[in-house]
Amino acid sequence: MRPVPRRGLLRGALAAGTAGALAGPAAATGPHGPGPHRPSAPRFHGPHQAAVLTPPARATAFTSFDVTAADRRELAGLLRTLTDRARFLTTGGTPDPTGITAPPPDSGLLGPDVPADGGLAVTLSVGASLFDDRYGLAGRAPRLLRTMPVFPDDDPDPAWCHGDLAVQLCADSPDTVLHALRDLTRHTRGALQIRWRINGHTAPPRPSGAPRNLFGFKDGTSGPDPRDARLMDRLVWTGPDSGEPPWAAGGSYQVVRLIRMLTEFWDRVPLSEQERVIGRSRDTGAPLDGARETDAPRYAHDPTGEVTPLDSHIRLAHPRTPGSEAHRLLRRSYTYDRGTDSNGTLDQGLLFCCYQRDPVRQFTAVQKRLAGEPLTDYVTPFGGGYFFALPGVRDRADWYGRALLA
Amino acid sequence: MRRSRGVRPPRRRAAAVTATAAAVGGALLALAGCGAAAPRTPAAGDSVDASPHRCGHGWRHPRPGTHTFALHNTSGTVTEIQLTDPRTGAVLGEAEGIAPGAVRTMRARLGAGRYAFVCFGEDADPVTGPAVRIPGRTAAGGTGPAAVPLTAHDLIPPTLDYQQWVTTRMTRLASATDALRAAVRAGDIPAARTRWLTAHLAYARLGAAYDAFGDAGEAVDRTTAGLPRGPRDSGFTGFHRVEYGLWHHERPTTLLPAADRLARDVRALRTAWAGTRMDPADLGRRAHEILEDTLRAELTGRTDYGSGSGLATTRAHVDATRAVLDRLRPFLRTRYPGLPALDRRLGRLARTLDAHARAHHGGWTPPARLGRTERARIDAAVGDLTERLASVAALCDVRRTP
Questions:
Q1: Contact B384 A193 (CB under 8 A)
Q2: Best mutation site among B81, B94, B106, B107 for testing chain A: the one with the most A CBs within 10 Å?
Q3: Do A102 and B66 touch (CB under 8 A)?
Q4: Which has the higher per-residue pLDDT, B132 or B13?
Q5: CATH number, domain at B23?
Q6: Are residues B164 and B52 part of one domain?
Q7: Of B134, B161, B194, which residue sits at a domain end?
Q8: pLDDT tens string B345-373
């Protein structure tokens, strides 16, 4: 690969021209605070993988793989290749010419050069199955990494569950995502085999505030502030003090849930019932006892759920009780749309993704509170998996999982 | 059955390039504009003359790094141009079929050393342009991948050798389809199924990917694609037609004619092949495309009409690929550093498939019924080989040399 010059120079120049065109103020405010020259793509090198904290991009592809590398040496080679390609794809540059010795080095989907301003971010995570006996990693797994269990409201399809390794690609447009996917799979052929893949997108604000999900409700209004570094340390990042193996410091547990939404059924439900199921006004996104989207619900004034039903989604998910603060998680969800099912019903839903420091304390606790909620009549979780987002790649000499394989 | 390779633009033809060239010219301008804003973009590119009478003129800024050349054909005829290392004859980049007046871009990464463009006019001797020196110490440091091109002269002997080998194998194939017909005629379905597999694998080992045998091959190994009535279509012939009957309890009155037809078509194929001269440019492509076919057809089950023998065919395709590769090996040793790894990976796939067959006492599991881990391993191995073999095809294209 052709070396890419110092990022600072390049990013400064490009960002000057593009920062205004990005996905809004949230996107321009990266994990390290706002800056006048921030491009949409977060930096590649750092203690954490950058896209964990950045707001959902317009387009994503979440791909789960089986690792088919023959041994530990090939696994290390795979992770180095993934690092090199991710570094190149996110920072942009000129594909190295191959002359007459090979097909063209790049799919050409983004033109002759890979632009630095496509907003691409790569998030690489590993599943519990990678830590079996194949690569000598047994006993090295993140302390809390398990295979995703089946919850009572789930209807899992094995073809859409789990994986040894997952890559989430996020970018400003679908062609950037697909370009990256083709590049990564091409360069890792033989060592990685796709297990399942789902594309997602986010909507622009309609007309303002958090994007609306397929039920027409604003989604993601209430979430911990990713700019609060201390809060992120408490809620998202695994650290030396959380009992994890040292290599895992700076990672995060990633829970992915593929949730089919029965949108056409939902459209046949009266608005008042929809709003009581969710716990918000559909038009404004305000809590049922408020006027604006950003108003915090005051459940203490509504102990019997007369205004906001006790089993409404937002009240169960985030009851705002003193103990529930520790259960908060960082959601990074997308909408998926994959055609129709066998009887012509629209096949669409939520690519739910969240990050946390402790999947049991956070995701599982919320999931248990949500069990049997009225919303479950309209949604069916059918896939996904539990993964661990690896710590970030620190510099040009580092690679994904280096400390794990050391 | 196979998709025609005609979808790929003919490699040596100059027709219809004008429109493409115009589009590329537009892209070039955009590139130049971008280059001004972001200096790291490969230099907006020297415009280099690609016509024989001024070959290589215009390369004003030789420097180490990745160059984007704008190759401009200022002559009145179609030209072709290569960037070479005159010391070794290795080619770093090429552009073919440049129409008069057209501009094409070509990228190359160049380290210290001497380079020269070579231009090929229509029906004219090649012209080597002025040698250009890029200063620096290390001779090859930073230079992109290059290879000494193969000519028709190089590739004709191995192609003839391969063709001869196929001819010999076709005799065996004809015997196998005759034996299959005899079993069908005797009404011995278990024997017919066994003989069907033997005959089909004999065919698969010939590397009949992507229309390699033309219409005669289509009659022998087509699928129902393009047939309005599917398996019941009268145009459905060949191995898969017989397979469909053998594994769907078809009555002898209709199955026997299908087996007769197959035996006849195989003989017709043998006759047609004896009168064909294989294009030397096909040899490298064949090495690549056999396993592309496997990936697309056998490992998806697309070509399974009941026998469930996709993995057996996959194994035969490994042999077929090796048969081509063996003929190219002398050229690849000096041109393709990945050859030992390619051989190792082919061996690994063969062993995986053989182990599967042994574990199932010679039987084969349809790919869709394999366990996830085993299926992923086989898919990954074949996918890996297609990437590697794509380089073999690129290297073994027929090129002109000075």
A1: no
A2: B107
A3: no
A4: B132
A5: 2.60.40
A6: no
A7: B134
A8: 999 999 999 999 998 887 899 999 999 99
Q: What is the pLDDT of residues B76-112, one digit of tens each?
A: 999 999 999 999 999 999 999 999 999 999 999 999 9
Residue of A nearest to B92 (CA): A99
What's the whole-number mean pLDDT along residues B267-277?
93
pLDDT tens for residues B178-195? 999 999 999 999 999 999
Measured between beta carbons, which residues in chain A are less than 8 angstroms from residue B63? none
Please identify which residue in the block is written with the tokens 């993601």.
A220
Whether B274 and B167 map to the same domain: the answer is: yes
How many structural domains comprise chain B? 2
Same structural domain, B130 and B169:
no
Query: C-alpha distances in angstroms, B144 versus A117, B109, B113, B156, B241?
Result: 26, 5, 12, 29, 49
Q: Are B248 and B332 within one domain?
A: yes
- Rounded Cα–Cα distance for residues B401 and A322 (Å): 79
In a domain, B401, yes or no: no
Give the chain A residue nearest B349 (alpha carbons): A190
Could you tell me if B293 and B240 lie in one domain?
yes
Question: For residue B127, what are the contacts with CB-CB under 8 A and spacing of at least 6?
Answer: B52, B53, B55, B118, B119, B120, B121
- Number of C-alpha atoms within 13 angstroms, CB side, residue A175? 9
Residue B114: give the domain boundaries. Answer: 5-134
Which residues touch B215 (CB under 8 Å, ≥6 apart)? Answer: none
ipTM of the complex: 0.88
Q: Do residues B128 and B210 share a domain?
A: no
Per-residue pLDDT band for B138 (boundaries 50, 70, 90) equals low
In a domain, B145, yes or no: no
Same domain, yes or no: B193 and B264:
yes
SS3 string, B148-191, reads CCECHHHHHHHHHHHHHHHHHHHHHHHHHHHHHHHHHHCCCHHH
What type of residue sits at position A175? Answer: D
Check residue B42 and report its DSSP letter. Answer: -
Confidence of residue A253 (pLDDT cuts 50, 70, 90): very high
Q: Which two tokens stand for residue A392?
A: 């970030």
Share of chain B above pLDDT 90, in %: 80
The string of pLDDT tens digits covering residues B45-61 is: 799 999 999 999 999 99
Residues 6+ apart with CB under 8 A from B74: B49, B50, B51, B54, B101
Report chain B residues whose CB lies below 8 A from the CB of A66: 372-373, 376, 380
Binary contact (A99, B397; C-beta < 8 A): no
* pLDDT averaged over every residue in chain B: 88
Please give the model's pTM, rounded to 2 decimal places.
0.89
**Percent of chain B whose pLDDT exceeds 70:** 87
Which residue does chain B place closest to A10, by CA atoms? B38
Tell whether B124 and B14 lie within a shared domain. Answer: yes
A24 interface with B at CB cutoff 8 Å: no
Q: Taking CA atoms, what residue in A is nearest to B109?
A: A97
Chain A hits for B107, CB-CB cut-off 8 Å, are: 94, 97, 112
Binned at pLDDT 50, 70 and 90, residue A41 comes out as low
> At B252, which CATH number?
1.20.1420.20
